[in-house]
DNA sequence: CCTGTGACTTTGG
DNA sequence: ACCAAAGCCACAG
């Protein structure tokens, strides 16, 4: 990305991350770029990422993109579904690493596989 | 070009 | 409140 200025596809105040505008990269790569910016100890949802990329109904695609990123450097464990449930835990090396990593970052849980979304939710474009 | 695939989300019973 | 069904959409074959 090389364009400067405010976000064109989201209404997050002060967002300067134009991951969706001016990009020759695929939707997958843009999704990865967003995930890479999730702060430690925070989580976000598939829907939020998709909406931020200007594709409101592409939440599923985001999850799909993450699947391709497992094993890489991306903090894919910080992405949960809209209820805070770790629906992607099955795609990790072992089903527990997702929760383990979150716990080690200080994220609290309301259930075995459900994080306290209200307490840790991060929206794409927010300050880290 | 058409079809299948899903780490999702919303809706209706 | 719980489950099933139907939208959803980028990407690969």
UniProtKB/TrEMBL annotation:
GO biological process: DNA repair; methylation
Keywords: DNA damage, DNA repair, Methyltransferase, Transferase
Catalytic activity from the UniProt record: a 4-O-methyl-thymidine in DNA + L-cysteinyl-[protein] = a thymidine in DNA + S-methyl-L-cysteinyl-[protein]; a 6-O-methyl-2'-deoxyguanosine in DNA + L-cysteinyl-[protein] = S-methyl-L-cysteinyl-[protein] + a 2'-deoxyguanosine in DNA
Gene3D superfamilies: Winged helix-like DNA-binding domain superfamily/Winged helix DNA-binding domain
Positions of the Methylated-DNA-[protein]-cysteine S-methyltransferase DNA binding domain: 27-107
GO molecular function, one term: methylated-DNA-[protein]-cysteine S-methyltransferase activity
Annotated SUPFAM superfamilies: Methylated DNA-protein cysteine methyltransferase, C-terminal domain
Protein name in the entry: Methylated-DNA-[protein]-cysteine S-methyltransferase DNA binding domain-containing protein
Species whose genome carries this gene: Salinibacter ruber (strain M8)
